Amino acid sequence: MSFKFSKNDFDNYVNQGIKKKALILDSIKGESAIGLDSQYKSTGRLSESNEGLVLTINEPQQYQLQSQIREAFGRSNTINTRGIADHQDFSELIHGGQMNHFITTIFVDIKGSTSLSLKYPDDLEFIYKFKNAVIKSCIEVIHAFDGCVHRIMGDAVLGFFGSSEIDRPQSILDCLNAAAMLTVVLEHTIKPWLQEQKSDFNVLDFGFRVGCNFGNDDEVLWGNYGFGQIGEISPTGLPVDLAAKLQSLASKNQIMMGQGLLEFFNFPNDFCKIKTVIRNGETIEKEFIYPNYKKADGTDLNYIMRSLKTHKYILGLPLPLDLKQMISVNVNADEKVIPNNNFKLKAEVTNPNGNIENYYSNSRVIRKDSKIKAILSSENIRLLQRYKVIFYKKNHSGFNDEEILKTYLQEEIDDNDIDVGQAQSISTFFKVGEFQRDCNFKGLHYIKCEVKDTSGSVIFRDYIYVPIE
């Protein structure tokens, strides 16, 4: 597994662009683009009405971030090149009509850009380039998980996940993975780059506020707002509207999830927390979106919201362990990943039809009645060394548990002693332990693997997160 989107890569996002009149049309589709290309080639210039056109499509290395994420999560090599509001399932609605269709919404707001403008009022070009690079990063992260960027509003990005080809649970997982990867890119790349460029700016003031929510078919109606081409195909529905509200209630570097997502996915209580506010020196829990809304019958809506434990969630992403270790600082010591180049944890899934596939942790929702197998392999370890390999399986209670799950919440532990002297080879990876279990319960569960040396010290720890439909 790899992910190497560096400060230099982000610097390319900041400083690379297509100059005025220089048109690169490889990834542009449509008659308008072809017309501009022909106009420029035949006359050497653009018409007066198009003279100031600047295109940023297909910049050098434009898709580098998206490509790296897709590779890390085991997704196809196909690049997502959709334009703004280019959702494949609803394009025909421009001619009229409506369609009920589920959607998972992400609303991302950049927190701290105003502070930059106040601190550097004479460096607007830097502020523009930096903010634009951050927006580009948001776009590419959403695209990496087959999402659609619906709208860019100043410092905010609105995106959607789900389609006729991507089902409801997967759309939720894609949304959450995108939100978590924004945190990874922020901490690993954006903040260090900004600190180098503006050493007198407190990068702790910069970050993302994210709202995520899900609405089902009967809760979301798609249609064209406006007049045909002078309009926008958008969804209507409370779950979509509340995604923006969730974002506004999120603190800096916080991902706020709504009731629609929490209940449909049976999101685990262990991976989220109740928002708190301080009022008159007292800590007050806010379980519901506030101010509260009234339903048609006059009763309170009491729409549940929870903040994602982002660092705990990142532990199960298919990323390099040293990267996860660096970012996931806000977890308990006995939960943190422990890298060790001598060990590698991977997984495979046996589908209900018997087909066996490699599985990238938390990359896709697994069908019920499948089997998940965690496999620990090792290389280049000392002969005659003894280790203890321990697998832990944990089912999590969530917001919409199946009744039978309540009897299977106790952590299951399987441990084995490994004698390296019995191995056939130490120069290449060989299997030192495996752990297989059934996938029976809806929600997000995990397998944890630890390796201990003879002194009892944990020298390796990693996770396989198992989301089940």
Topology:
Layout: H1 7-15, H2 31-43, H3 64-72, E1 98-100, E2 103-111, H4 113-119, H5 124-144, E3 148-153, E4 156-161, H6 168-197, E5 207-215, E6 221-227, E7 230-236, H7 238-249, E8 254-258, H8 259-264, E9 272-273, E10 275-279, E11 282-286, E12 305-308, H9 310-314, H10 321-327, E13 343-350, E14 356-359, E15 370-378, E16 386-394, E17 412-419, E18 430-439, E19 443-452, E20 458-468
Parallel strand pairs: 5-8
Antiparallel strand pairs: 1-6, 2-4, 2-5, 3-4, 6-7, 8-12, 9-12, 10-11, 13-14, 13-15, 15-18, 16-17, 16-19, 19-20
Helix pairs in contact: 1-5, 1-6, 3-5, 5-6
Structure explained in plain terms:
Helix 1 crosses helix 5 (124-144), helix 1 crosses helix 6 and helix 5 (124-144) runs antiparallel to helix 6. This protein has a seven-stranded mixed β-sheet. The chain is globular, with a radius of gyration of 24 Å. The chain folds into two domains: 64-308, 2-Layer Sandwich (Alpha-Beta Plaits), CATH 3.30.70; 332-468, Immunoglobulins (Immunoglobulin-like, Sandwich). The longest helix has 30 residues, at 168-197. Residues 18-57 and 423-429 have low confidence and may be disordered. It contains ten helices and 20 strands. By secondary structure, the protein is α+β, with helices and mostly antiparallel strands.
